Amino acid sequence: MNQVAAQLRIHASELVKGALIFWTILLTIIVVSYLIAFFGGVPDMFVVTNAPIIVFVAITAFRLVKEDLDYSIHLGLTRNRFALGSMVYILGISVLFNLFHQSILFIADTLQGSVLKDTLTFLSWSSILNNETSFILDFGLDLLLTVLVGFLLFFLASLLSRFGQLALYIVGLVSIVAMIVPAVNQKLFEMVMNFYHGTDLLFIWGMIGVLILLPLFSFFTLQKASA
């Protein structure tokens, strides 16, 4: 476990600079959006702030395998411990980033209507579901989606490391074909709509199930990945 802790420290030191740049850019976009909406007279400008977090975590997860696997193995870390440390790292940054994101939304919501005019509308689960949602639900759904995408990109990077680009092409082709099949896309559409109307949480349970399986697939794939 000391090796895993050392791996996490290495990842954390690499994260600091990237995180500072990321949040600086995102906060700048929010401030500039406020200025444009206020001085330009644009009512209810729509701003998406959770999607960039998902993209950042996804890129970070993919780079863990692509750039750090060889180095970690040469340091004496086993593939299982590398995968374990990486999963903990992905989960950790997902929690921190989404907590900070919810803090920004809370501050913006507090200031709007008092200090600032109601000029920005942030994409949230309240707006998607057309219903008032709690902090726990907003944070939980954002975290679930962020970790799911992060684990997925880690698994895809594991496939790339083990089998090469052909594996990614096959996964992409299978995914496209599956989505074309009426039985699949109709069932998925029903699950999403039932979740949207709040009548069925099968879609969420499906995401949780995939979230559990992806690390297992990654552990198995990395067993014989080149390093």
Automatic annotation (TrEMBL):
Keywords: Membrane, Transmembrane, Transmembrane helix. InterPro entries: DUF4052. It comes from the Bacteria. The chain crosses the membrane at residues 20-39, 45-65, 86-108, 135-159, 166-184, 204-222. This is DUF4052 family protein. It comes from Alkalicoccobacillus gibsonii.
